[in-house]
Amino acid sequence: MCTASWSVSATEATLCFNRDERKIRPEAEALAAHESENGKLLFARDPQGGGTWLCANEAGLCSFLLNNYGATAKLALQRKRFSGGRSRGDLTIGCCQQASLPGAERWLRSLDLDSYKPFLLGLMSLGNSVVLSWDGCRIVRLASDIRFLTTSSFQTEEVEAYRKNRYIEICGDDASLCSLRRRISYHFDTAHPSSAYNPLMRREESETQCVTMVSIRKTSTLMRLQTRPFEVDGFEGGQEMELERAAPELRE
């Protein structure tokens, strides 16, 4: 469960992300700037796993995480067991402790991932983005032109197909031509009569817990976060924090 859409250019990179979780999972902590050995990190911590689904740093790098349900289902058929069950939310933080997108990808590939359940991990910076898929056996890059991801544990194929088609209906099939305003409206969309299908989803046991927007520019990184109840289709009244861009020599 989760939906992400993003757009990158040489002057701005933006991400919208819906975090869907089981209702029994504790709510995330407030958005905050966290100190690390390699500079400040901006994220809302998951109190259960200790990590986060989305993180950004002061160097202008953002990482975000989704479940890989297709791979998880295949592994279940193979009865593969994971040695550890480590929190995948640590990976987004670890990526953002690197100085650049290529450095984050190298760091992720250097890890022994056998104790992590399958995931999709996106990396975004000015002018560049990458999606890495871990299926429990190997990690690979997905197609370079991907700017939209959605996952669902409920009626996976039907829900994912609807959300993708709805995204194209609202935003078009070229992310570079879609305004941020239209993308935000998609992430708050509830047009389908069955709420489980919507980007802003709700089921008996699960729901969209929050919607996050990230804007990376040459001078700063802005993150805005809106939690339930979603009284407006946007981020008015939500949490907001901004990191000034660190000088490159401070991150080397």
Task: Describe what this molecule looks like in 3D.
There is one protein chain. The chain is α+β, with helices and mostly antiparallel strands and 252 residues long. It has one domain (2-244): Penicillin V Acylase, Chain A (4-Layer Sandwich), CATH 3.60.60.10. It contains 6 helices and 13 strands. It has helices at 69-78, 89-96, 101-110, 156-171, 180-187, 248-251, and strands at residues 2-8, 12-22, 32-36, 39-43, 54-57, 62-67, 119-125, 128-134, 139-141, 148-151, 206-217, 220-227, 239-244. The termini are far apart.
Mean pLDDT: 92
Tell me the structural class.
alpha+beta
User: How many whole angstroms does the radius of gyration measure?
Assistant: 17 Å
Class in CATH?
Alpha Beta
The coarse silhouette is globular
Strand order, largest beta sheet: 3-4-5-6-7-8-9
CATH level-four homologous superfamily name = Penicillin V Acylase, Chain A
Percent helix among the residues? Answer: 10-25%
* Uncertain regions spanning at least 5 consecutive residues: none
What is the count of distinct domains? 1
Q: Indicate the CATH topology.
A: Penicillin V Acylase, Chain A
The total beta strand count reads: 13
End-to-end CA span:
36 Å
Q: H/E order of the elements?
A: EEEEEEHHHEEEEHHEEEH
Strand percentage lies at 25-35%
CATH architecture: 4-Layer Sandwich
